[in-house]
Write a structure and sequence with these properties.
Order of helices and strands: HHHEHEHEHHHEEEH
Cofactor: [4Fe-4S] cluster
Binding site for [4Fe-4S] cluster: 167-168, 250, 253
CATH architecture: 3-Layer(aba) Sandwich
Structural class: alpha/beta
Distance between the termini: 75 Å
CATH superfamily: HUPs
Mean pLDDT: 91
Pathway: Sulfur metabolism; hydrogen sulfide biosynthesis; sulfite from sulfate
Function: Catalyzes the formation of sulfite from adenosine 5'-phosphosulfate (APS) using thioredoxin as an electron donor.
Number of domains: 1
Oligomer: single chain
CATH topology: Rossmann fold
Number of strands: 6
Catalytic activity: [thioredoxin]-disulfide + sulfite + AMP + 2 H(+) = adenosine 5'-phosphosulfate + [thioredoxin]-dithiol
Largest sheet: 6 strands, mixed
């Protein structure tokens, strides 16, 4: 009578489970890719997209900005998935993975755009890599036209220290605009509580500068809301969030923030600059 040998490797079951998860994710990604190709469609006109924005604003904002009947983040994302299908891009700075996690629940394998400026903290790159390995999203590294060394050669070393706006324009704004041209909607993690410049952030709006629809599902959230969601769903967080960096950008232009200060006060500290240009 033959018997099946029992493995003496205590890690065998863990390896088998990991292999099964990888196979499942691969199959899911392949199915998404095939469905996306089969249902590809031309980008709708500005007029058509603006009409969708008007309908969406009426549906999602209820009786007004910040009103009790304003849609939840989950409802905003569900609306976007229904209206735009695969033509959605998530902009994520990798301060955390809450936004990709939320959107992927309604739109698995959604494209997550990461602005690879060449100046990120090591922790930010590590967060991006962990998201790519652990979440059902598609990471798209958005690259500037010039590498850091090429930019140094053309504009002089450390342009960020002399003209931060020009550096942001070349390494963030232009690459994102170029990439967003292929989508109908982009999702951001902008919150009203982050800075005075963001207090009137709507849930859905027409982004005329980039020529597409923009949603801000976290507009009504606080930083504590974000952390609570991350804890509840065990979502990846950038370690710098617990090291005095509530808002994380490029390493040379981001400083720690003292308790009680504006969360974005550590961005371009000492300069007359509060935004990189992506959301203005």
């Amino acid at each position: 009578m033959s018997t099946t040998p029992i493995s003496t490797d205590p890690l065998a079951s863990l390896r088998a489970a990991a292999k099964a998860r990888t196979a499942s994710r691969t199959a899911s990604r392949d199915a998404h890719t095939a469905d996306r190709a089969a249902n590809a469609r031309p980008k709708r006109s500005d007029a058509e997209l603006q009409e969708i924005v008007e309908r969406g604003a009426a549906e999602l904002h209820g009786s007004g900005l910040g009103a009790p009947d304003e849609a939840t983040a989950e409802q905003v994302v569900a609306w976007a998935a229904r209206e735009f299908g695969h033509s959605i891009a998530v902009a994520c700075s990798m301060a955390d993975a809450v936004l990709p996690h939320l959107v992927a629940a309604a739109a698995p394998w959604v494209d997550v755009l990461f602005l690879e400026t060449g100046y990120h903290f090591a922790e930010t790159i590590g967060t991006r890599d962990a998201v790519a390995q652990q979440m059902d999203v598609t990471i798209v590294d958005v690259l500037p036209r010039l590498t850091v060394s090429e930019q140094d050669a053309v504009h002089g070393k450390d342009l960020f220290s002399r003209d931060a706006a020009a550096c942001c324009a070349m390494r963030k704004v232009e690459p994102l605009q170029r990439t967003l041209a292929g989508y109908e909607l982009w999702v951001t993690g902008v919150r009203r509580d982050e800075a005075p410049t963001r207090t009137t952030t709507p849930l859905v709006t027409w982004d005329g500068k980039n020529g597409l629809v923009k949603i801000n599902p976290f507009a009504a959230w606080t930083f504590d809301d974000l952390l609570a969601y991350a804890a509840q769903h065990q979502v990846i967080l950038n370690p710098l969030l617990n090291d005095g960096y509530p808002s994380i950008g490029c390493a040379p232009c981001t400083k720690r923030v003292a308790p009680g200060e504006d969360p974005r006060s550590g961005r371009w500290s000492g300069l007359d600059k509060t935004e990189c240009g992506l959301h203005v």
